[in-house]
Amino acid sequence: MEDRAPPELAADPLIETAPRFSLLWLIPLIAAVVAGWLAWQTLSARGPLITITFSSAEGIVAGQTRVKHKAVDLGEVRSVRLTPGMKRVVVEVRMRREAAPLLTDHARFWVVRPRFTAGSFSGLETLVSGSYIEVDPGAPGGTARRAFTGLEAPPAVRSDEPGRTFRLHADRLGALGVGSPVLFRDATVGEVIGYELGGPGRGTLIRIFVRAPYADFIHQGSYFWNDSGFSLNMSGGGVRFEMQSIQAVLSGAIAFDTPEEARANPLAPNDADFTLYPDHEAASTARYADSIPILVHFHGSVRGLAVGAPVEIYGIQIGEVTDVKLQYDFERKQLDVPVRMIVQPGRISAPNAPPPTLERAIESLKALTAQGLRAQLRTGNYLTGQLYVAFDFFPDAKPASVTVEDGTIVVPSEPSDLENIARLASTLEKKLAGLPVDDIVNNLDATLRGLNKIANGPELAATLKEASATLAHVQKMTQSADESLARLPAISAELQTSLERANHLLAGLEASYGSASPVPRDLERVLAEMDEAARAIRSLADLLDQHPEALIRGRSGPVQER
């Protein structure tokens, strides 16, 4: 057996040392850095956690609904839960760090969702993007807060919108509501931001906001009126219908103006108080500050006269009626209607006149009353029967004087035209009642019977027959006269021809016998008589041609010869 050589011993293994750094280690390191950076970013951007209480969570979804200001994202809703009493909803919102300075007691929150009101539409963009919570930070300088009560409706005015607010006092709210526009010359310059209803016997307070620069148009002395869409006025000036914009019709509107005499007054300050008048006419009337109270006693019907009716002179309004009531005078045992009114001297131009006072008014009214000035009720609109008070001059009026009752000037009155007509009708009725109507009717009946007897009697028939015969005879005479008249021109022409021949004959005789012979003279006299006859025939023809009735009645006057 062959001897095999022993195997060679294996060489010592070579041990290689691993490198100290591997590229794979960069992956977890980078992930840790990114996670740390993201965590830092999140923690650095994370703001305070706040709570907002709403009456309903409609449109709010945890993890989706955002909190925004001017379309900038400031936070996110984390959770939505009910209050312990289950009457309201608490919304927890994680705000961003940059929103922390805005979270003060001046901030306001509300849910922006589609809203449809009578005058406007808002939040339509949320139909696509979904509802969100809007925040209005309010004026700077508030106290930090983390719990808020949300608004149920968007505020009418944002805190950063320039302008001023005003307070209007009215008897009733009418069609006005939050969001109703404030108009200046039919342009929207503001809106109603709220109102407070007073208790019984108290008025309504309406708050409005007017944007800049239109707020500077409101001075001390400006006036406001309710301009709610349309108005129908059936006064003495006729039927007048006015209509504003569709928005004003649906939601009501307030308009204002500043009269020329108030434009030099200072600007109205913020939250200044004004009166809201029911219409423009009432507002325009109220700008006349000076007024003189006048009382007139009427002793007839005042149906159709109402408070606010105009007081006019020469067709120009100088005041209005303020009170109408019935009064019984125990001393005289009579009823009358005292009508109180105010006259505004500012409506009457009086250059260089001193300021109006009660004493000067009494003096002027006494002088005018002596000239016949009286107050009279007149119909302003026959369709509605509305009355107004007119001051006019009646020269034939009974003498009267001006007196003063409790600081009010009493002016005498004159019965209205309708009262005069009614009085005349009553007088006529009394006179007719005193007439012997029965005797008149009996006599008239007897007269008619007599006339009937005559008309149907034989005497009238005989008379008519004789008149018919006479008329026929007259017609024959007229026909004969017409024939004679037709022959008169021919006779006249024949006479004229005969005269011409006689003239030739006379000329021949004078040549034969001489001028001293009596034959030519006799012939000349005959010719003159023939000429007179011809003229008489022509005159008769002319007379009968112009007056054929002369054949029956004869000539009534002298006929001029032609």
Largest sheet: 9 strands, mixed
Measured by DSSP, the beta-strand proportion falls in 25-35%
Question: Which structural category fits the helices and strands?
Answer: alpha+beta
Quaternary state of the chains: single chain
C-alpha Rg, in Å? 57 Å
Helix content: 25-40%
Q: How many domains, as an integer? A: 4
Q: What's the average pLDDT?
A: 79
Can you tell me the overall shape?
elongated
Low-confidence spans: none
Q: How many alpha or pi helices? A: 10
Report the end-to-end length measured between terminal Cα atoms. Answer: 211 Å
Strand count: 27
Structure report:
- By secondary structure, this protein is α+β, with helices and mostly antiparallel strands.
- The chain folds into four domains: 103 residues, no CATH class; 124 residues, no CATH class; 123 residues, no CATH class; 96 residues.
- The chain has ten helices and 27 strands.
- The strands form five sheets. Strands 19, 20, 21, 22, 23, 24, 25, 26 and 27 form a nine-stranded mixed beta sheet that branches. It has a seven-stranded mixed beta sheet with strand order 5-8-2-3-4-1-9. It has a seven-stranded mixed barrel with strand order 10-13-12-11-17-14-18.
- A hairpin with a 4-residue loop joins strand 24 and strand 25.
- The longest helix has 56 residues.
- The radius of gyration is 57 Å and the shape is elongated.
- The termini are far apart.
Task: Give a summary of the structure in a few sentences.
The chain is 31% helix and 29% strand. The chain is an alpha+beta fold.
Could you name the key traits of this structure?
9-stranded mixed beta sheet; 562 residues; 4 domains; 7-stranded mixed beta sheet; 29% strand
